[in-house]
Structure formats: C-alpha cells, structure tokens
Amino acid sequence: MSKTLISCKSISASYDGMNVLRDLTFSVNEGDYLCIVGENGSGKSTLIKCLLGIKQVDSGEIIMGEGLKQTDIGYLPQQTVLQKGFPATVGEVVLSGCLNSRGYHPFFTSKEKKRASESMEKLGISDLKSRSYRELSGGQQQRVLLARALCSAKKMILLDEPVTALDPLASSELYSVISELNQKYNIAVIMVSHDIENSVGNASHVLHLRKNGYFFGTSSEYSDSESESKFI
Amino acid sequence: MNENLKLMLEPEFFRAIILPALIGGIAVTICASLLGVTLVLKKYSMIGDGLSHIGYGALSIGAVMNLAPLKIALPVVIISAFILLRLNENSKLHGDSAIALFSTTALAIGILVSSKAGITNDVSQYMFGSILAMSTEDVIISVAMSVIVILAFIFLYNRIFAVTFDENFARATGVNAGIYNMIFAVLTAVTVVLGMMMMGSLLISSLIVIPSLTAMRVCRSFRGVVITSALISVISFLIGMFMALLMNTTPGASIVIVNAVFFVIFSIIGKFRK
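Above: the input entities. Below: the structure tokens describing the complete assembly.
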C-alpha cells in the first residue's frame, strides 16, 4: 500500500461568492499521476489554490501526509504574458524555485545551487543555463518552469494547464518529460488540463469536475465510465 | 573658462547649492531606477506617473493650508499607491484607466485649489521641480530612502525576483507576495514625492521607467538589468546636471533627455547583438 501524500475530505470552496467545489473527496498517493479535468467554471483553479494553501476551504479538510507541507508542492502555474519577455537567465528562474526552503536567510547556498542544477539536468536543459528566458521557445520555457517547480518539490508537482499554447510536438514532448519524472523519480503528479484526450492517457487517476458532481477513480475506470455515458 | 562653470566651482556656491543637489539627486535616481525594474516588469510603469500627479494635488492643498508640503504629500501619495496597486490586482476597474481617473482628478483639484488661492507660482515649482533648491532635510530623507531601497534590494533580492517574475508561484512557495507589493507601494510613493520636488511632477516617472527599459535592451539576466539600470540612472543624472549647469538649461529636462539618449544607444546595441 503506497503512502498517502494528500487527501481531501469532503471539501467545499467558493469563488467570487459562487460555490464551485461541493463535498469533494479524493486522495493522491506516492507515485500517482492524477489528471484533473473539467470545463471552465468547474472549480479547477479554485481547487489548485486550496491544494497550494493560497485559499482556505469553506468546509472539509485537506490533510497532508508524509510530513509534506503545502509549500513543498512543486507548482507550475499557467504562464502569464508578462513572463514571455522577462529578462532573466534560465539559471536565475530555476534557482528561484528553491525559495521555499530558505526560511529567512537572504541568500542561496551552494546546496540550493546544486539542487537547481540537478533539476535542470533532469529536464535536459543544463545547456540553457545562462541563456535568457525570453529567447527560448514555448516548449523550452515550460521545461524551465518545470525545473523550477522541481526545485521546490519534495514529492509532488502540481501542473496547471502545462501544454496550453504549445504546438502538438512540444506538447507531446512535455507529456513524456512529465511521465518520466513520475516514473523514474517517483514524483507524484497532479495535472490540471483541458486536453482530456491526450492527458488522461498518461495518468493513473482521473478527477473529472462537473457543474453538478464529480468523478474520481483510476484512469481505466474513467474510460469505462466515459464510454458508457457516451452510449447513453 | 565658461562663466557658469566658474560659478559652479566657487567653493561656497558648490557647498550650498551643487553638493546637496548632487547627493540628493543621486540618492533619488538610484531609488527610482531600482524600483523601476520591478514596476516596469510588472507593467506598473504608469503608477509612478499617476502618483506624481496625485502628489501635485496634495502639495497644492498643503501649500494653500500652509502645511509643510512633505507632511501632507507623503501620506496622501502612500495611501494612493496602496489603492492603485489594489485596483491593479482585482481589476474590476482596469489598472491603467484607474490611474488616469485618479491622477487627472487629483491634478485638477491641485490646479483649482492653487489658482483660487492665487499661489500658482509657488505651486508650479512642483510641476517642473527645483533640484537646486533642495533643503538639508530633503537631502537627508533622500539619502535615508536610498539606503533603505538598496538594502532591500540586497537582502530581499531573491524574493523580489520571485515576486516580480511570477507572483502565483511565489505565493505557492510561501512568499507573502502581498507584503512585498505593499513595501513596493510605500517605497515607490516616497521616491515619487522626493523625485517630484527635484524633477517635477511632469518628469519624475521618466526616472522610474527609462533606466530599466534601457538596461533591458541589452541585459539578459535580471541581476544585470538591476545593476545596469542603477548605473545608467546615476550616469545620466550626472551628465544631465553638468549640462544643465554649463548651458543654463532646466536640470530635470536635461536629465530626462540624457536618459532618452542612452535608451536609443542601448536599443541599437541590443539590435546588433541579436
């Protein structure tokens, strides 16, 4: 039995006064690959904020296991327009992922610099270290942000729509990198996606948020239930 | 030897007028350029401009009520900075239009109040600034401010980078982004008020915006942008001041022109490096 990293027990949360998450229960274990899908307004973003501890749940509770803290989740946010032209080197961006282990020390230590270069190695971007972030392609930029997420991750990464705005080739490359992180390094992955067809394939579990209710189960259970619902 | 230059180097004149202007000026330009890097990258460039107009309104009211200008302008501008940053975050009223709304209204109030009271001349120095009339008090506040801003940039450098580059990520890793935004609002407000006494309400935002834009033409790293923009701002200030004294031009405007020339030069260098 693998250990539970995060478990949500009948959580409810609201956004702008609207109750978007209702009585939601699911858990993520070590080494899981959970894909969260759902249409706009189904509460995906609100759920992410709750998982990261940026937002409080209205009721229910989120229990972290294995000594994990919410700030230990490696987060890959959606890219903003501002970032695309940002003057910073890849090394600077990746290193900023080590901030959560800093406490109140103002400067990075050699240990953290080592951690940053290991993350870059895992994603095959070590050669980009002194390149400027703004000169990279969309796929490369996502890898850089993934390396940054890895720096702050203890056992889990949370990816918010990682392939939006990438071309099909870059998307499939990114998916395989994510699968590799999951399988080779045993990092639990939570991925929020619009792209149900391509993202569910790699996942071990699926959480499908709907306006009324939700589905949570393994990906094979999910494809069974989906094909059933298509026939009906 | 040029008559102006001779006067400038007269020991007494130098000590009483030029030296305070140089010290205060360098301090304010360093503050403005460092804060400018973050403000420009977060697309808050117009906040400096908006705040300076609000500051003008506050200073006019202060002058009419016979209050020390700094004592009324500082709190008003700091509060406005908070409000403007807030409006930028939860943008029911879009950030840039909010700035236009607030700043023009404040400017109009300032003009109305000062013209009714018949003190337009006294107040117009805040429009165009008067760096050669910096009091000892102004110089001390400017230097203290720049020490605070420089220390903040050294000790909070990594967090400032994180909040500037990606506020969502910074929040998720436990950085209290709200506090950093607040610190920025206060520091920017103080810098704007000091800068507008020196450069004038119309030109202060150039000190915030141009040096970092110039640095970004060429520098590839954030650290490079921060350091280069501080250096450019100080060099532009010194050249501008020297030109102004030598050719008897307005100091504020001369400094802005030198900054703009640097921007053009760096843009050309940046193009060739690609």
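Note for the figure: The radius of gyration of chain B is 19 Å.
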